[in-house]
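Example protein
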Amino acid sequence: MKKQLIIAGPCAAESKEQVLVAAREAKKRQVDFMRACLWKPRTRPGFEGLGEEGIDLLVEVAKLGMAPATEVLLPEQAQQVMEKILTEVPESKLLLWIGARNQNHFIQREIARVVASDPRVMLLVKNQPWKNEDHWEGVAGHVLDGGIDPKRVILCHRGFMPNGVNPHGYRNVPAYDMAMSIREKTGLKMVFDPSHTGGSVPNVFHAAGEASKYDFDGLMVEVHPNPTEAKTDAGQQLTWGEFDRLMMERQA
């Protein structure tokens, strides 16, 4: 089995203690990148993340030897995160990503242009919320138009908004065959996000099991030190023990 890229950690950075505990747990498991969002797009008003103030927490993650990952909504945010982390911890790697709701192609391209400026940074791009293969392929094209090396771009399938058949009650319905088609057409790596697909812990396991039958290049999973206290997506975040079980089941 080829080596899988594993991105795991809390939905959002919430406190120094939470972030550092997650970083140590992720490092023990040799996770490639530890996710912890600083800016959180929300359906309704609520906790929108620590924002710029949380960048120092990701610096601490990097100092522990764990490569951090966070979503950015604007090119200015990408620049801030890159400058702060890679200046203070120049040996670190970094993963930034463009979320499903960020469908302004000018912004997508500009974020890619910022990331392209530093070879230590990878860019992950999630599919749009609605099911449309042409649009998804177009998103990849806009990002590559930013001048970034395709080897530093990762696509992420996190399912599409339910529209009719949804027998498992997923938060977002996967289209595995479409993901594989986009992977083949673009030549880019493709990881799977069972957390935003599943929407609940049992469904995270179910979706990850389904995805294991396809040629994904890795997983992006939400894992929280104490999911019941999470400020966002509490119902779908795994404990680190559950994450271990998920990894074992994938290897079985």
